[in-house]
Amino acid sequence: MQAFRPIEPERMHLRQLFGILLQRAKLGLGVAGVVFLIVLGAFALKTPTYSAVGSVVIDPRNAELTSARQSEGTLPPDTSAVDTQVEILRSPALYQDVVRRLKLYNDPEYNPSQGPGMFGLTPAKPPIANPDERTISRVARTLQDRTWARRAGLTYVVQVGSSSTSPQKAARITNAILTTYLDRQLDEKVAMVSRANTELGRSLEEMRREAEAAEARVQEYKNANGLFSSEGQTMAEQEVSVLNQQLAVARAEAAEKAARVAAAQAQLRNGNMGSDVGAALGSETIKEMRKREAELSVKLAQLRTDFTDEYPEVKRTEAQLRDIRGQIQAEINRIMSSLRADATAAAGRVASLAGSRGAAQGGIAANNSAMVGLLPLQQRAEAAKAIYEAYLNRAKEVAAAGSLQQPDARINSQAAVPTAPSSPNMKLGAALAVLAALIAAGAAVLMAEFWDKHLRSRLDVERELGVPFAGVLPDFRSVKPKGLRGPQAQPAEYLVSHPFSGFAEAFRNLRAFLMVSSRGDDSKLIAVTSAVPREGKSLTSFCLARTLALSGSSVVLVDCDLRQRGATKLSGPKEVGLVEVVQDDVPLSEALVHDPKSNMFVLPAAGKSIPYDLFSNPKTDEVLRELSERFDYVILDAPPILGVADARILAAKADRVLYLVQWNKTPLRAAQSAIDILQECGANVAGALLTKVNVKGQARYGYGDSSDYYGYFKNYYIAAA
């Protein structure tokens, strides 16, 4: 047999690089987030300043839209008028109104005495409920220092801007200045219209009460006389219409059922005893009885050809035939009775509906007489409503006159919330933060990949461990069919119940590897071990033994892990096992446990305590030699190499060692240390096997192993046996 040569490392392609990034996504994102926040925070240390700008248009031609005598030739404002409005926008009285409107006297930015002092050591003062004029003036001057108003060239547009540490506050203050400026112009014009609205509102309230009272009288009259209506008809008229429709349907059903009864009676009179009645022909019960009658008739005819009429079997058959014919006639009579009952019930429903319709028609006559008294009440209610609506329209016109009053200017553009401060430049800071985050994330991913190396592919196993690659065993959770429940949801049971599944195929591949990699001699003792615990060693040993046994070989699985005893747990506990065979000379046949599902045998660990240095005992060699003579394969479930000395002894005794490495979990250094120990023991390492492989994750990482192409063969495997 040729010596094993590791495959040469290939150049990393884009898919592998993408797989590494997916695997280390959490680390990369975390480092990128931290670096991004640090860099961005450095730019944000300086308190940013935001400026919001709005504008108004000076235009007195729109000041009085409700005036019918407005002159179309009104001249636009001159330069002095526009300059006057600019000065009004700069007046202290305007800013004092803004301070009161926004309560800026409680804002530490404009009133520092409200904020914490002594570098934040003293707490902030409570909000001011009723500020004095001196405080208002001082805050207004601070606001005026941070606000500017200027004319845009020689136009009638005046721009107003304000600066603040908050973009929302800057926009809110600028808009408040514009709004306050327009409100001060509009207040006097609206005051006169407000007084007229007050007087008209009193009369309007009285008119509303009268209209409501008239409408209430109409509703009371309708309720008293039952004049309920829906969709233009009274309730009585709707009831008659519905009853007419139901009566027509009921009459049709009654006629149909009466016709069925008449037809059935005519068929009875024909002398056929109801055998051709339509309802009887469709009865499943009669069909079964007819079939039974035909069978008895045939049987009776055959008996009469062979025996006389006095023969007991002939008499019994004649009695059965008479009985079945009597049952048929009774069933036909029951069907006829049912048809008559249905016809009678249909006729009764027609009579009931006809009576109800007569009662409803009497209600229509009563409603017609009551309508005579309703008309005057409706006329008075409509008149009161018309008067109220006339006053209401007038009130709306007066209210509109007040709302249509316009100031001598209008807002040209509201101040929008600034999206970026003037200083510092956060766009540049964000760009640098993103760049630094990407570089740091890439460096962290590469450092983690090479610092904490795990084995994920055939290339990793052969290059890093220097042993043949035995294959991959999928993580059962990644290949288990959805909805699988019960005992078959256990991997060892699923292997037997679904022999053509992808999970079972992986163990057949492992069996093929062991057969192909055999040195040609009689290598029966196969030790299964790993570097550290919880890598699927016992389950792999158990499933491998079952696979070999299902292929026709005689197999025994020996639980040599005296501490965890995983194989013993899978096969079931027993009082006698390997410990008793070696120490107490118990016959081997009494300790072996037969697995009826695969025809393999298991030699459990047994023993209530862990014996000292059991595998150095010469009797252990005799037991293993006897097992090798009786079975084709002896699978040794050995403990982990790095932690238990028994594993080294068993590896040296075994003909071949199958070394397990958990996919993407076992540290590279631990896996290499275990290989070094095995080589020091002189063990024949047949190959390394990747266990608990997430086939979907492996395919996503793109390492080129057989599990990479699981999706191609997903429909090739048979999931259900």
Automatic annotation (TrEMBL):
Broad EC category: transferase
Domain Tyrosine-protein kinase G-rich: 375-447
Entry superkingdom: Bacteria
Catalytic activity: L-tyrosyl-[protein] + ATP = O-phospho-L-tyrosyl-[protein] + ADP + H(+)
EC number: 2.7.10.2
Gene Ontology CC entries for this record: plasma membrane
Assigned keywords, A-Z: ATP-binding, Coiled coil, Kinase, Membrane, Nucleotide-binding, Transferase, Transmembrane, Transmembrane helix, Tyrosine-protein kinase
PANTHER family assigned to the protein according to its UniProt record, in alphabetical order: FERRIC ENTEROBACTIN TRANSPORT PROTEIN FEPE, TYROSINE-PROTEIN KINASE
Protein name from the UniProt record: non-specific protein-tyrosine kinase
Originating organism: Phenylobacterium zucineum (strain HLK1)
Lineage: Bacteria, Pseudomonadati, Pseudomonadota, Alphaproteobacteria, Caulobacterales
Name of the encoding gene: pssP
